[in-house]
């Protein structure tokens, strides 16, 4: 078993972003032995891509020991801060190493825009940076036409229809690039910089995008590339 050790004395910052006051946690010095996490990622050869989702890179599953510690230690904080009523525990849905290595010219239109992971209001996303600031952090966005910053079930159909029309009208395929800042469709409302062993936790229905810095070459080598551990946690 990989012995990943959560730092129970980590530095925690609480903020809210946007008009909809999206709660966001920034946790520095997240794990005591983050170097072990990087070592266990290997040389990148076991990372695989998944055509079923829009992640612009490859992933490798992390041992359940990693996410289970987060769920156990942070349940009270998560339940209180994110306001999930009647939740009794935190449960890990998925946790995996992720490394962005897709070149801009390979991006599909939906990979060039902010996204949300689910409309479920009880799911949280955790991004743990195992790379430095130059690789790019994560930004949060407001959809200009709708003024939405989070996508709930009742907003989904109208939002999806509008977004499809806008993507076609803007002909994104003619200038493929990673989302990095505001454009005609989305306004950037907040940015959290990457920092080695920093984690951020936010609602999975928030509109967000990784600030992928393609100028660095997008290496698949975990020692050189934009390595993160991405997790989804459900409060139930």
Automatic annotation (TrEMBL):
Origin superkingdom: Bacteria
InterPro entries in the cross-refs: DUF6445
Name of protein: DUF6445 family protein
Organism encoding this protein: Colwellia maritima
A Pfam family matched in the record: DUF6445
């Amino acid at each position: 078993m990989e012995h990943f050790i959560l730092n129970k004395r980590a530095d925690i910052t609480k903020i809210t972003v946007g008009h909809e006051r999206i709660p966001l946690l920034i946790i520095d010095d997240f794990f005591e032995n983050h170097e072990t996490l990087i070592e266990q990622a290997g040389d990148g050869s076991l990372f695989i891509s998944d055509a079923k989702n829009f992640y612009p890179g490859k992933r490798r599953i992390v041992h359940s020991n990693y996410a289970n510690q987060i769920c156990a230690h942070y349940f009270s904080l998560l339940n209180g801060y994110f306001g999930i009523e009647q939740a009794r525990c935190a449960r890990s849905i998925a946790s995996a190493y992720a490394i962005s290595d897709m070149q801009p010219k390979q991006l599909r239109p939906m990979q060039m825009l902010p996204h949300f992971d689910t409309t479920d209001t009880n799911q949280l996303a955790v991004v743990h940076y195992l790379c430095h600031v130059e690789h790019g952090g994560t930004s949060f966005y407001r959809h200009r036409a709708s003024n939405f910053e989070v996508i709930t079930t009742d907003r989904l159909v109208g939002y999806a229809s509008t977004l499809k029309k806008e993507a076609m009208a803007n002909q994104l395929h003619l200038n493929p690039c990673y989302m990095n800042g505001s454009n005609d469709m989305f306004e950037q409302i907040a940015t959290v910089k990457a920092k080695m062993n920093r984690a951020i936790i936010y609602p999975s229905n928030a509109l967000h995008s990784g600030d992928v810095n393609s100028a660095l070459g997008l290496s698949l080598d975990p020692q050189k590339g934009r390595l993160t551990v991405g997790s989804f946690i459900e409060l139930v």
